[in-house]
Amino acid sequence: MSGQAALRAEGLTKHYGDVKALVDVTLEVVPGEVYGFLGPNGAGKTTMIRTVMDEIRPTAGKAWILGLDCHRQSVGIRRHIGYLPSDLALYPNLTGKDTLTYFANLRGGVDWSRVGELAERLDAQLDKKVGDLSSGNRQKVGIIAAFMNEPELLIMDEPSSGLDPLVQREFQALMRESVEHGASVFLSSHTLSEVQRVADRVGVIRHGHLIAQETVASMRSKGIRSVEFDLGTPADAAQFEAVPGVRDVLVADRRVQLSYDGKMDDLLRMVTSNYEVLDIRSQEADLEEIFLTYYHDDQSTENVTT
Amino acid sequence: MLTTVFSKTVLDRWRGVTITVVSLSLLLYFAMGVYRDLDLAIYTGLPASFKSLIGIPENADVGSLAYSAVYNSYGALAFSGLAIAMGAAFIAGEERKGTIGELLANPKSRTHIVVSKAGAMLLLLGLGGLLLWAAAVISPALLDVSIAGLHVGAFTLHLTVSTFFYGFLALAIGAWTGRTGMAIGIPAAVMVLSFFAVGLLPLVSGWEDVAKFFPWYYLGGSEPLLNGVDWAHVAILVGGSAVLFVLALVGVNRRDLRGRSTGVSLIDRARSNPMTAKLAERMAGSTRVSRIWVKSASEHQGLLLVVSAAMFFIMGVLMGPVYTAMDQTLVSMGDALPEALLALFGGGNTSTPEGFYQIENFGLMAPISIMVVTVTLGAKALAGEESDRTMGLLLAQPVSRSKVLAEKAFAMVLFGVIVGVVTFAGVLAGNALGDMGIDIGNIAATCVLLTLIGLLFGALALLTSAATGRLAAAVWVPVAAALVAHVANAMASLQDAAWGRLSPFHYYLGSDPLSNGMSWVDAAVLAAATVVILALAFPAFARRDLREQG
Prior knowledge:
The complex is a heterodimer.
Chain A lengths: L6 E10 L2 E11 L4 E5 L6 H8 L7 E6 L2 E2 L4 H5 L2 E4 L11 H12 L4 H11 L12 H13 L5 E5 L7 H16 L3 E6 L2 H7 L2 E6 L2 E7 H5 L4 E7 L5 H5 L4 E7 L2 E6 L3 H11 L2 E8 L2 H16 L4
Parallel strand pairs in A: 3-8, 3-9, 6-7, 7-8
Antiparallel strand pairs in A: 1-2, 1-4, 4-5, 9-10, 11-13, 11-14, 12-13
Helix pairs in contact in A: 3-5, 4-5
Chain B lengths: L4 H32 L11 H7 L7 H36 L2 H5 L5 H34 L8 H26 L2 H21 L16 H4 L3 H4 L3 H24 L11 H7 L4 H9 L6 H8 L1 H17 L1 H7 L2 H6 L5 H6 L8 H10 L2 H23 L3 H4 L6 H33 L6 H29 L2 H25 L10 H4 L3 H4 L3 H24 L7
């Protein structure tokens, strides 16, 4: 299926009565990439995923997975994808093994050695009833179900919820390995650190609108820096906020934290002329800060209420 | 309004009470209207034993017939069922849903919660009883029917207090065990068993007093409609409820709360035992998830087992010897009975074994039993999967919605057929044991029609599931439809009215298959209706958005 988008949406829109859950979303996931779909809770991430999964039908627009129409050819699509729904619910009375057997049967078989390998890597308990598992251990069963058929596209909605950090890392490694073998991943998340670690490209969704789409590399290169000062005297936040490009000022007595996307010279001049500077730490901002920047801008310009 | 546990419980539960009360009121009005236009001469001179069996008071008139027919049977069963559902949901239900932890994280004691919920139940059932009383007074006034000499207030008081008992029984069992299945199953079994015990035992000489051990006796045993309130009987019901309430308080405080529980079935035990593991694995493990319909079927095997056992042993086998042991007057009186009256209980002639089976089994209990199975399957299999939020993952597999629906429908049909076959086997055995001489072909014909009417309402549950994805609607729509259809058919056959043909029940026992054999036309009508309803379910399911929340 080379050359064809793994997932393509054109003008995808979903209204629930007056509520516009998804508005004119157009995006494309190219083969072999991890696409991070970022947004706060209630932004429309799950609506987007449920629409391309044919669980719900768009009010307007269309979507294709691996070149197949998401509605008319949805059964065909599902042979080639792995799906992990948000807030995963499984059959409480089945064991993990039973659950996977069930899905394997519906798919016409599965490579059980692959299941065993996945279970070992994630440290999953497959012989216990799913209803008796903790949410993280239940999530592992869902992850195995999504990965076990070597899908060409993985659609994962908040997949890391409930996983401990070690398992999260293993799960991220699994995603990268799939991508190296030519698969693609559509990863919805509000955990920015996760997206930062695995995604090649990021789309930011808010109030149903796709407000930005960029590669992780170029997002980082936006030049936003995280700066921290230790000062000799208590700091005045207003003085810092007055400098153009300064955001998210946090003052704790003599320590100041802020994000900054201006010329460092301007900021330093203001600080040194007003304060005794004991220490400066400056580093490239992580996605979280960049994301919060989008978030704030969006809120101030549109002044939307949720 | 969500300020207290009490008010939240009232808000959660008032709809069910309202729906039940309104339907019963309408049915009462309807029944009274039909009885008013009948020649009541047919009721005079009925033997006492017969009246006891079908729950008609002495000196029956329009009012007492309507009250007894609607409130004492349907009304009491539906209202008690409602109380059981409430009582079971209060503690055990919250444990199963996994919400009890959060509820008890608030600074409220377990005792406080039980008291609040029990108070809400008393309020709702009490208000429901009050409304039933109002309907019982308003209907005759509207219809210009005299109810002089009838103690309507006493009658509804007995009815209301008797539902308290079942509600508290369910609450107490739920509080002690935390298991919803037991909290619903045991009181429901007590209710149904005592319904029959109280109807049948007085007819067996020497056993009359045994009926007093069954709670149903205190509902109508003293004939409150004619004699006014029997305070001793009311006290027994209230006292019993109070004892159960105390037991519930003790029970909920003394044990560990259950988490979101899964329960351990026999098969699970067999799977974990190394001796039986291999066999159980073959039977249950990989087999039960081999297909969608197998999995749906395996999830409801317990229900099927219980209902099948009840239909086989109690409604089938046991009825043979019971019939032989019965008062001979019942057997000899049959010819004197007017046909119009018998129609109400499904037709047939009570003096004959056929008529006896019709009244005790096929008239009411058999359709209820088979519908419990088919409607549960139809609702849980499809809407249940949506409210449990597993439908999304199921449909992430390469299976179409139509295939999912078709397999779930197959499980429903299979279970309906099993109940039909087991009922047939039970009646066959009872027929032989009691030496009753019913034609085997006729038993088979009746069981086929029974199966078909069960499938019809199961299909309605599937259609409602497919169209709405709401579990509550998928249960209540077919139940309400069946209730209305059953009463309408009974009333129409009394009047020989043509509109009775609109009720599916007309095509079930309307031709008296137990005496006359198979009516292929009726079978075809039921089958065709079932097929049409099922066919409508497919586009309804395919077109709609799946629900996100349960």
